[in-house]
Amino acid sequence: MNDRIINLKFDNKVILNYLNLLYVRNPSDFDDTNKVINKASINYYADPLMIILHKKITPLIEEKISKELIPTYCYTRKYTKNSILHEHVDRESCEVSVTYQHSKVDWPFHLRSEKNLYEYRLKQGQGLYYYGISEPHSRPIELLSECSWHSFFHWVLKDGDYQHFGYDNSSFTDDNVLENMYDIVD
Ligand SMILES: [Fe+2]
User: Fold this and answer.
1) Among 41, 76, 175, 178, which one is least packed by beta carbons within 10 Å?
2) Beta strands of the chain (E only): which ranges?
């Protein structure tokens, strides 16, 4: 299962500076109500920089799984000290997902796949892909660091049962704003 890890060559210092500035400018622009975290977190849905990274990652994941993908949405979260992510599965837009770690923290990620439990300790700049609808995942051990930034990139299979969730099926945006944003990025 180590083939699930991808090393991405993003400039994490630039990204972390950007996220910290984003946080000062706009503490949160999306209310997370899914209750899978034991305490409040800061969340950003479809942040423009993350849409750029999402587009960059897409061909890498397509190559990994040998299937074509349609992006659905991306989501960025600032976890704070003592956070726990309870075991859960994701909604339909998350058929294929990547959790990406911006921060330099040691915070185990657990993934249950075909009745086996895998523990990953991702490093700063590493992502891990998984099947969000069918593979329960969690961070059951409290975060010991003051905070940790993570982004989640989601897709559906182009020819799969969930293809109509492409660009998140406009769940959170009107007039295909999300699809248009992804189209702008070259
Ligand atoms: Fe999840």
Assistant:
1) 175
2) 5-7, 42-45, 69-80, 85-88, 96-101, 109-113, 116-120, 126-130, 137-139, 147-157
